[in-house]
Specification:
Length: 217
């Protein structure tokens, strides 16, 4: 018995199928991200400080602390999601990342199995062979089966797309955290607001105003 496999189910996202979405939007964005990371690495390669030990006396040394590398954090998250977050000291983000991946992968597999089940039943029903009966005979009409296939196919494809989005967000998060790792947020930075008198107008008339003072120590 030969089954007809040329059943067409309409595309549902802006008239494009998920493959076209990945090719037109996701892949160019990912390549642009890699180019940006490459440029960051080119600059960092010239400025990154390695650990240097300078002898001063026989038993004394000056040690310069190695600078945190955003590029390394990015590459780690590209190779293994969550690894860049560990390098940045953000351990708590790892369970969130893998919880998201686990849920999306489970959703993809579940919806794919459902899609295949209903599609096989529909193909069995339209194969023009009266001896073959699908398991949903009497429960779903032909139109119902087509709708179910389309629904689970849409859910499966959305799960796959969101998996790719989560992977990119994991990389972006590691890169941003890597750049902010050495950002100075100590008490040596202070911003003060104080009242003052400011002269305005042609006659330099005194007028009340607020002055912002940023002090760097």
């Amino acid at each position: 018995m030969k089954k007809n496999s040329s059943v067409f189910f309409p595309f549902w996202i802006f008239g494009l199928n998920p493959t076209n979405l990945l090719i037109r939007y996701f892949i160019p964005f990912f390549l642009a991200l890699l180019v940006s990371v490459g440029n960051s690495f080119a600059q960092e390669f010239e400025t990154e400080l390695d650990t240097v030990i300078l002898p001063v006396m026989a038993d004394t040394a000056i040690v310069k602390k190695k600078k945190h590398s955003p590029f390394k954090a990015t590459i780690m998250s590209v190779a293994l999601p969550g690894l860049g977050q560990i390098y940045n000291g953000k351990w708590w983000k790892v369970p969130i990342i893998y919880g998201g991946f686990g849920g999306l992968i489970y959703s993809s597999v579940f919806n794919d199995l459902k899609c295949r089940t209903y599609k096989e039943a529909y193909l069995t029903r339209i194969d023009d062979d009266p001896t073959t009966i699908d398991q949903f005979e009497g429960r779903f009409s032909d139109a119902n089966l087509r709708e179910l296939v389309s629904q689970y196919q849409r859910n499966r494809d959305l799960s796959l797309i969101f998996t790719g989005v989560l992977y990119v967000l994991n990389i972006v998060d590691a890169t941003v955290d890597g750049h902010l790792k050495d950002f100075d947020v100590s008490d040596d930075l202070s911003l003060k607001i104080r009242p003052t008198i400011h002269q305005v107008g042609p006659g330099l008339i005194p007028a009340p105003a607020l002055a912002l003072t940023l002090r760097l120590k």
